[in-house]
Amino acid sequence: MRSSTLAIVKIVVAGLLTGCAATSTGDLPATATPDGTASSSTGTADIRVVLTRSGGLAGRDDTVTVGPDGRWTATGRGGAVRQGQLSPADLDRLRALADTATTGAGGTSTEAAGCADTFRYRLTVPAGSVAWTDCPGPPPPTADTIAHLLLTATGTN
Question: How is the chain split into domains, by residue range?
Fold first, then answer.
């Protein structure tokens, strides 16, 4: 019961912190689109990405949320919150990968493979959501690339 309450609090805090972050697109106005993304006058889609990683031998519970301007918030198992900014190169790469993050087969359910102490991942992008585990079998390729990008860029390894 306590861990589910803590998880809900983490999600709410991460959402509030991300929602309060200022979005900067220079002097160009941003407009909202029906799917919840924003696009600037340059036509570049701005995105919001949420990655959760849980499990493993130490029982990790990490959440990384990246806003449209590249500002990120990382919340760990102990509730510690860190914030930062993706580099322009990492933000460009994230934007390029996000469109195809939910496509491609891969991943294994922990129950089906009988895996123990594996990480469970969930990646949410404007196009949808995808979940996978570290169990034997290939992960969804683009989603796994995004996960490694975000975990490395935010120091959440």
Answer: 2-23+38-153
Mean pLDDT, to the nearest integer, of 38-47? 46
Task: Read off the pTM.
Answer: 0.66
Q: CA separation (Å) from 54 to 47, 144, 153?
A: 23, 14, 18
pLDDT higher than threshold 80 for residue 97: yes
